[in-house]
Amino acid sequence: MSETKSISQQERVKIPRQKMPTQEASVRVRNFNEVALGYPEETAMREAARCLQCKRPKCVEGCPVEVDIPAFIERLREADLPGAVQSLKKDNNLPAICGRVCPQETQCEALCVLGKKGEPVAIGRLERYVADWDLTHPSPPPELPPPSGKKVAVIGSGPAGLTCAGDLARYGHQVTIFESLHAPGGVLIYGIPEFRLPKHIVHAEVNYVRSLGVEIRLNEVIGKTYTLDELLNEQGYDAIFLGTGAGLPMFMHIPGENYNGVYSANEFLTRVNLMKAYLFPNWDTPVKVGRKVAVVGAGNVAMDASRCALRLGADEVHIVYRRSREEVPARAEEVHHAEEEGIIFDFLTNPVEIYGDEKGWVRGMRCIRMKLGEPDASGRRRPLPIENSEFDMDVDMVIMALGTRPNPLVFADSGGLERTRHGTVVADERTGRTTKDRVWAGGDIVTGAATVISAMGAGKRAAADIDRFLRGEEAPVSRAEAAIRAGAS
Amino acid sequence: MYEIVAREELAPVTKLLEIRAPAVARKAQAGQFVIVRVHEEGERIPLTIADYDRERGTITLVFQEVGKTTMHLGTKQVGECLASFTGPLGLPSEIERYGTVLCVGGGVGIAPIYPIARALREAGNTVLSIIGARSKDLLFWEEKMRAVSDELIVCTDDGSYGRKALVTIPLKEMLEGGRSIDRIWAIGPAIMMKFCALTTQPFGVPLIVSLNSIMVDGTGMCGACRVEVGGQTRFVCVDGPEFDGHQVDWDQLLARQRIYLEQEKQALELWQHGHACGH
Ligand SMILES: Cc1cc2nc3c(=O)[nH]c(=O)nc-3n(C[C@H](O)[C@H](O)[C@H](O)COP(=O)(O)OP(=O)(O)OC[C@H]3O[C@@H](n4cnc5c(N)ncnc54)[C@H](O)[C@@H]3O)c2cc1C
Ligand SMILES: Cc1cc2nc3c(=O)[nH]c(=O)nc-3n(C[C@H](O)[C@H](O)[C@H](O)COP(=O)(O)OP(=O)(O)OC[C@H]3O[C@@H](n4cnc5c(N)ncnc54)[C@H](O)[C@@H]3O)c2cc1C
Ligand code: SF4
Ligand code: SF4
Ligand code: FES
What we know:
The complex is a heterodimer. Chain A is α/β, with parallel strands linked by helices. Chain A has helices spanning 2-5, 9-14, 25-28, 41-48, 58-61, 69-77, 81-89, 95-101, 108-111, 114-117, 123-136, 159-170, 187-190, 199-211, 228-233, 265-274, 300-311, 332-341, 444-447, 452-470, 479-488; strands at 151-155, 174-178, 215-217, 239-242, 248-249, 262-264, 292-296, 316-320, 344-346, 349-356, 362-375, 381-385, 391-393, 397-400, 404-405, 439-441. In chain A, α6 (69-77) runs antiparallel to α7 (81-89), α8 (95-101) runs antiparallel to α11 and α12 (159-170) runs parallel beside α20 (452-470). Chain A starts with a helix and ends with a helix. In chain B, α5 runs parallel beside α6. Chain B starts with a strand and ends with a helix. The mean pLDDT of chain B is 93. One iron/sulfur cluster binds next to α5 and α6 of chain A.
């Protein structure tokens, strides 16, 4: 290790980016074990040696929570793992998760100077290495300040809620998380599969948040079991953070969408991940998998659904996407892994109808070929159907992975909370304040489907602002003011 | 958590459990349901709130043992706990003063129709009721239903008790007899509700049914429960469970209920085998 410490800059840049060992594609398509195996110590040290320790590190600007990347890498280089953990956890409560699922190629690694000429430092993989070391060498929970006597309700136990709750507890407030499902973690537990994010890691992170004194109340649906107004006015909460994500599935509204064998990706992934249908019949919840499966969409959700279908025994799995390869929104690593596993990509293709048999089961899907036109509002080139190019795909199962919206259930009987026409909550980007008094929001419920780390960033900023409010350092903003602020940001 | 405080066998395959869940009991209303998980590896299944007691903080469920999960639930005794219990979910029944209403409960559907009949009666309606089951030993709550109905007709398919008829027969007779009825509720197996819809359609009386589609979360996030109503896809768990019975695509609902037949059989066999071996 000391040799890597004393090497020159030229020598550093000559070290190639270290490959991540993975399970062989032909083996992993038959199991749900983790695909990426993590760096062994030696590889981690070699990769860490590549970092130039820039004085003004660009990489940090690419990280939504501004992890002090050179600092944690330097500790790692010095073999000071406790120091590396501490440095990492200062800005990121869930590093073992982020190291695995962040789209690094568009965030921290996208801006690393080494990426200009060659390949960037594998920041995510190093983050994972340090965080995994931490999981097997637990440190005592941090000391908490004396209780403030204030109570906060956090709705939803996804990355936004967990981060906000953890920070609020560390500020000394009494925090209760309300979660509608029977297990905490949000998308980390019901959406992202075991082979990409092992659930024991999510449990460990959740337990860490519990160790800070946060109470997690499962099976309580806000909007049903309690409303927001009841929490504020009857149950004695001083403030609320809304982190309920964007869990409502979208469908295409094409004929045949309700045949047996058409799933929303949410249903398919929930059955497989949360309910462990891949362990059926030892676990009770079943799932059906076709012989030939089409997954519509090309985000992370589509990659996860297609790779689950393959592991559950499908002969052939197609990703059907209306744009081209360049526009694929999924993480590069997932697309790469999906291709290695034999997922077939049908670009510039859009379903128009699903056919069923006399018993109500899917037996085929009619699609139309697309071409790319002028860029639309989002800056991406708009896909346009090519006339008379319809063709039929022989499939017996279709999974719709078209994106999601916030679930409106949480807003029941709680006036004053402004929302956009996409159903997301209007909130100040810097503070998370909504148009309703004493209510903050962050994560996918505000941005629509985004990323784990951006949800965490929002949870963190909201926790800081809630703390300021609870300490009386700032009066609650009026609805109008909040609306203006939100509009301006 | 979610302790069973009372248990009753209403019929050989129909059980009643009263469960401590104060947060659910606080808000429960007629027509709503809960999602139950019996054990850690268990499935999430929806069951209607058959009764609630806000003071004691309890919810009453009545269920028929038809497969693995309901059979497992049927073995649970007073003092044992359920792994999870979520609710109250779905929209409550729209209880108003309609005038004369008719409540039809078939099989285990007698349980969910009871709190609706009671609420309708309390709202000042004249309540006529029909309850039916395959045979006498599957009937239950006759007295409870009589207590909240102005008139009650009891029938069995095989004639072992009450009138020998399907519930649709007295239903049709009442409508043909020119009884003025302002609204009908029918709850039971999907096939019974379908025939209630066909029977009532020509008479133009509004029919409310409570759909029992397959569910997972029960909060609108999976779409497993979707069914076409009036040509539009609706999620039963959040848009229902009650809908206009004349608008439901019954054949779609019936097909969607059969998605997991093979797996359900497998799970049941494994359970029965495990049970026979004394696990
Ligand atoms: C399949 C899939 C794969 C993904 N892969 C990646 C990836 O690789 N990298 C990445 O960065 N991002 C990924 N994402 C996106 C990322 O997971 C989300 O952006 C992130 O989880 C949002 O966090 P959140 O805390 O806002 O909401 P969520 O994680 O959605 O959590 C919300 C929680 O609130 C609960 N809830 C909802 N309504 C209520 C209510 N009324 N009462 C109580 N509780 C309620 C929900 O049950 C849930 O547990 C993926 C998403 C999916 C679906
Ligand atoms: C809103 C609602 C309220 C209900 N209320 C009652 C009630 O009060 N009493 C009662 O006895 N039954 C009720 N049911 C039906 C009950 O949920 C099913 O009988 C139960 O899920 C069967 O599970 P099982 O494992 O025992 O049987 P299985 O062998 O798994 O299934 C038997 C049949 O039950 C249905 N079913 C299976 N899994 C589910 C699921 N996850 N969700 C819904 N249906 C499923 C299917 O049609 C299946 O063919 C209700 C259903 C809904 C949707
Ligand atoms: S949290 Fe994500 S974006 Fe930030 S440094 Fe870590 S991997 Fe990169
Ligand atoms: S930009 Fe790259 S080389 Fe520079 S500090 Fe960040 S990771 Fe290291
Ligand atoms: S049960 Fe999942 S949306 Fe209705």
